[in-house]
Design brief:
Elements lengths: L3 H34 L7 H30 L2 H18 L12 E3 L2 E3 L1 H20 L5 H20 L4 H18 L3 H20 L1 H4 L2 H8 L3 H14 L23 H35 L2 H25 L19 H20 L2 H7 L1
Antiparallel strand pairs: 1-2
Length: 371
């Protein structure tokens, strides 16, 4: 039986290989989908692709920096509070920007548009991982459940005001999952489940009071036109696909470079290609949690478990939308590292780098490298 240090090392290398393959596959599909969408949407595919590559480089740099300093940051009270305050400030600032297509979701930074709500997917799990390692095994319901829900709920409310319903729902799920991973006491866990169920029930009953008509319609109906175009492309790809950059039905799929990237994958690489991409994401999520578990560090497990969860949730939602499942509304949720989305790319890679940094510094890998 291999020593734990070697097990972590082997799985760590395996994770990096899977991550590299996923990014390479993403570049291929983004390149193909951008040129396909240019036939029905006024965009410059070369310029868009260059922006995507820049975001990929920035994401890689963010991952390296996060890898180096994540452990120091997560254990520093002042840094984590500052990051959480910064998140809320930037979410407030975006509400006073000029609306784009009727919503206020982006900050213009030079030639780039950054979506602050994406940053919540990194900072909220990191903040809660720090928080739960500080309170240790305290069984107080206010400390374990009410306080973190209220604090993170403020950030979610700011995202909801943009308005960005899909992001606010995903980050709500992310927050609840992170709290679930942080709670250790069984009685507190039971209270958390009951409290969460009550909140969900109340929100569902009174949804007409805080949701706009178009938001309710979007949640309860699907876009048959886009879904049918996506299904046609996947059907044309058959089992093994038409080949890289080949196929003709993808040219008629609106938003094929984002919401419906699965249609491009399905037509070019077939149903086997879709299965391959989903398998890559399964390993990315599973191995991140497994590596965190091997460290036996609670904060590392909380952050990595939460990060793996939101990545997998987005993969499931984007795939169901792309496959044209009748009851699945078109949500605008990207396929991480594969769909076009600069903010998503940067934050996803930085989150993974943060998680890998925690794993590295809280396992025997760091000490063995020093030796």
């Amino acid at each position: 039986m291999l020593p734990q240090r070697l097990v972590i090392k082997h799985n760590f290398i395996f994770y990096l290989i899977i991550l590299g393959i996923t990014l390479f596959v993403g570049v291929l599909f983004i390149y193909s989908s951008l040129f396909a969408i240019s036939d029905i949407k006024e965009i410059n595919p070369d310029q868009k692709f260059q922006t995507y590559i820049i975001a990929l480089i920035l994401g890689f740099l963010g991952a390296v920096i996060a890898f180096m300093f994540s452990d120091t940051f997560t254990k520093n009270k002042h840094i984590m509070i500052a990051l959480f305050v910064f998140l809320n400030l930037i979410l407030i600032i975006v509400l006073f920007t000029q609306p784009i297509a009727g919503v206020k979701r982006w900050l213009n930074i030079g030639p780039f548009q950054f979506q602050p709500s994406e940053l919540a997917k990194l900072i909220i799990p990191a903040f809660l991982a720090f928080y739960y390692t500080q309170i240790q095994n305290k069984k107080n319901l206010l400390i374990n459940v009410i306080f973190p829900i209220l604090v993170c709920g403020f950030s979610i409310f700011l995202i909801f005001l943009e308005p960005d319903l899909s992001s606010s729902l995903i980050i709500t799920m992310l927050t609840l999952i992170t709290i679930f991973l942080g709670i250790r006491d069984k009685k507190v866990m039971l209270f958390f489940f009951i409290f969460t169920l009550i909140i969900i029930s109340v929100l569902f009953i009174f949804k007409d009071n805080f949701l706009q008509t178009y938001q309710i319609s979007r949640l309860t109906s699907s876009d048959d036109f886009q879904s049918q175009r996506s299904r046609d492309a996947i059907t044309n790809g058959g089992l093994i696909g038409t080949g890289p950059f080949a196929g003709e039905f993808k040219y008629y799929v609106p938003e094929s470079y984002s919401d419906f990237i699965i249609s491009v994958i399905g037509e070019e690489w077939g149903k086997l290609g879709i299965v391959m991409v989903l398998t890559l994401f399964f390993f990315l999520s599973h191995e991140l949690v497994y590596l965190a578990y091997l460290t036996k560090d609670h904060g590392t497990f909380i952050f990595c478990g939460a990060t793996a969860s939101w990545i997998f949730i987005q993969v499931v939602i984007n795939t169901l939308v792309g496959l044209g499942v009748p009851w699945m509304p078109v949500t605008g949720v990207t396929l991480p590292m594969v769909s076009y989305g600069n903010s998503s790319m940067i934050v996803t890679l930085t989150s993974i780098g943060w998680g890998l940094g925690l794993i590295y510094h809280n396992s025997e890998l760091a000490s063995s490298d020093e030796e």
